[in-house]
């Protein structure tokens, strides 16, 4: 059985999916979101600040992805600031490498 993974998906990913003309970054970010949505072992982690930033930088693809992930109950909301969330991600990355 595969382990559940919780990922913080920064708003720059949401913003990049709408780049015109279509760039490699836009294609890669859109592909990442679709892959994450298809794999039931991935959850997205959002703080209230991060969700607000996502809504500010939303695109059609990112909005559709977020609605689908919410409907699938694969969004985890945490009560922490964005800065604290970034710090925890950085610390976790250091211990995993």
Structural write-up:
- Helices cover 59% and strands 12% of the residues.
- The two termini are 24 Å apart.
- It is α/β, with parallel strands linked by helices and 97 residues long.
- It has helices at 11-16, 24-38, 48-56, 60-71, 82-96, and strands at residues 5-8, 42-46, 75-77.
- Strands 1-2-3 form a 3-stranded parallel sheet.
- The model has no long low-confidence stretch (mean pLDDT 88).
- 15% of the residues are buried.
- It is built from 5 helices and 3 strands, in the order E-H-H-E-H-H-E-H.
Give me some keywords for this one:
97 residues; alpha/beta; three-stranded parallel beta sheet
Beta-strand content bin = 5-15%
Give me the count of strands. Answer: 3
Quick one: biggest sheet?
3 strands, parallel
H/E element order = EHHEHHEH
Q: Nearest-angstrom radius of gyration?
A: 14 Å
Strand order of the largest sheet: 1-2-3
Shape label: globular
| Number of alpha- plus pi-helical segments | 5
The CA-CA distance between the termini, in Å, is 24 Å
The secondary structure category is alpha/beta
Helix proportion: 55-70%
Oligomer: single chain
Contiguous low-pLDDT stretches (5 residues minimum) are none
Overall pLDDT metric: 88
């Amino acid at each position: 059985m595969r382990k559940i993974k919780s990922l913080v998906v920064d708003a720059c990913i949401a913003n990049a999916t709408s780049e015109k003309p279509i760039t490699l970054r836009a294609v890669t970010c859109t592909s990442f979101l679709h892959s994450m949505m298809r794999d039931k072992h991935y959850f997205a982690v959002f703080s209230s600040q991060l969700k607000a930033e996502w809504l500010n930088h939303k695109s059609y693809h990112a909005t559709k992805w977020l609605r689908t992930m919410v409907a699938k109950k694969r969004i985890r909301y945490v009560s922490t600031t964005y800065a604290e969330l970034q710090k925890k991600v950085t610390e976790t990355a250091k211990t995993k490498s």
